[in-house]
């Protein structure tokens, strides 16, 4: 599970066998979420409240290019 970045206690990562569309997984303690990239949108969440999801969405949007570049580097422009 390659970690792309960490911010504000969240870990943003891919699973090694992930699939298109480009997306990012997020975890903090026992809570998880998945966001698609371009457009940034929540796919699923377990344990995060609305304020946390808004914060995560902003972090994903602010790091969108990093996520895309990391995805392409790891998965080879699937």
Q: How would you sum up this structure in a few lines?
A:
With 78 residues, the protein is of the alpha+beta class. The chain is built from two helices and five strands. Helices cover 32% and strands 35% of the residues.
Shape: globular
Tell me the strand order in the biggest sheet: 1-2-3-4-5
Report the strand count. 5
Q: How far apart, in Å, are the first and last alpha carbons? A: 17 Å
Structural class: alpha+beta
**Helix-strand topology string:** EEEEEHH
The largest sheet, given as strand count, sense and whether it forms a barrel, is:
5 strands, antiparallel
Mean pLDDT: 95
- The amount of helix comes to 25-40%
Strand content: 25-35%
Count of separate DSSP helical elements: 2
Can you tell me the residue ranges where pLDDT is under 50 for at least 5 consecutive residues? Answer: none
Output the radius of gyration.
11 Å
């Amino acid at each position: 599970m390659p970690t792309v970045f960490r911010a504000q206690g969240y870990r943003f990562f891919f699973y090694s066998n992930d699939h298109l569309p480009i997306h990012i997984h997020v975890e903090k303690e026992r809570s998880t979420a998945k966001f698609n990239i371009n457009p940034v949108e929540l796919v699923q969440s377990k344990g995060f409240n609305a304020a946390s999801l808004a914060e995560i969405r902003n972090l994903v949007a602010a790091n969108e290019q990093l996520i895309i570049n990391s995805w392409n580097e790891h998965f080879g422009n699937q």
